[in-house]
Design brief:
The protein is mainly beta. It folds into two domains: 148 residues; 83 residues, no CATH class. Helix content is 7%, strand content 48%. The protein is built from two helices and 17 strands. Strands 1, 2, 3, 4, 14, 15, 16 and 17 form an eight-stranded antiparallel β-sheet that branches. A four-stranded antiparallel β-sheet has the order 6-12-8-9. Strand 1 and strand 2 form a beta hairpin. The longest helix is centred in the middle third of the chain and has 11 residues.
């Protein structure tokens, strides 16, 4: 049999589905690294027959198989995995006359993520309408009162009488995902890596993990301006004892051979 070179430069995609669901796998997005890890506990029996020592027997017990991903995309499911969270789909809707106490320079957080603010009026009469970018500006979570406008003047007048000033806000909310952190103890996933080799025989290489449970992220960055953000997540590969005799309960690798020569 002729010797064939099989060096490796591999790229690919990680996909997941809930363990045991039978649903199609869906991508987790770009992963800069996908690394399988192992931990062992070595049992050794010293050789007492030899005065110079040595090892008479050894057993290497596998105590853990893991997988580590450097996720580079912040899909809601990825964030939920890292935070033991639950994702809720919050559709866009119209909110009418949501009350808020306002202060100049302070940000009022709206009940839902705003897309546009349709109207802000004084709560007392509803007769005075305040102007965006003159009296207030919209922010990522709500709105901020600006100095120098009619709304700031009304707030100052109320403060003279030691009173707060309230407004009613009508707005259209954005379509967004809400991720509630630490709502479970980590769900089990089935994980698949689909890869391709750019060198060697240039074949496909796939890895399949039957039961994977991710660990809670030790930390999470919310600001990154010097480089694309990434989050390294680690998971334990659990045994699937339904695989049967002679089959791995943990994972398998499918590696293409006899790769057809491209025309």
């Amino acid at each position: 049999m002729a010797w064939k070179k099989e060096t490796a430069v591999i790229g690919g995609t990680v996909k997941m589905r809930k363990a045991g669901s039978g649903l199609p796998f869906t991508p987790v997005g770009l992963c800069s690294t996908v690394q399988q890890t192992h931990e062992t506990n070595d049992l050794t029996l010293p050789d007492a027959t030899n005065p110079m020592g040595g090892t008479y027997d050894k057993l290497e017990k596998v105590t853990r198989m893991g997988i580590q991903l450097n996720m580079r995309e912040i899909f809601a499911r990825n964030l939920a995995i890292q935070l033991y969270g639950t994702v809720y789909d919050v559709p866009s809707t119209t909110v009418t006359e949501e009350p808020h106490v306002v202060e100049v320079g302070g940000t009022c957080m709206l009940a839902k993520m705003p897309l546009t603010i349709d109207e802000i009026v004084d709560s007392a009469t509803g007769a005075v309408t305040y102007v965006e970018d003159v009296d207030y500006k919209i922010t990522g979570a709500g709105f901020e009162v600006l100095a120098g406008g009619d709304l700031a003047t009304a707030i100052a007048a109320a403060a003279v009488s030691e009173e707060t000033f309230s407004v009613d806000v009508s707005y259209t909310s954005a379509d967004y995902d809400e991720i509630e952190a630490i709502t479970n103890s980590g769900e089990e996933w089935e994980l698949m890596f689909e890869g391709a080799n750019a060198v060697g025989q240039k074949g496909k290489i796939n890895a399949h993990y039957w039961r994977v449970r991710f660990g809670l992220a030790e930390s999470m960055d919310f600001i990154s301006v010097d480089d694309f953000m990434g989050q390294t997540v680690t998971a334990e590969v659990l045994a699937d004892n339904s695989r049967g005799a002679g089959r791995s309960a943990y994972m398998k690798i499918n590696k293409q051979k006899n790769v057809p020569v491209a025309p």
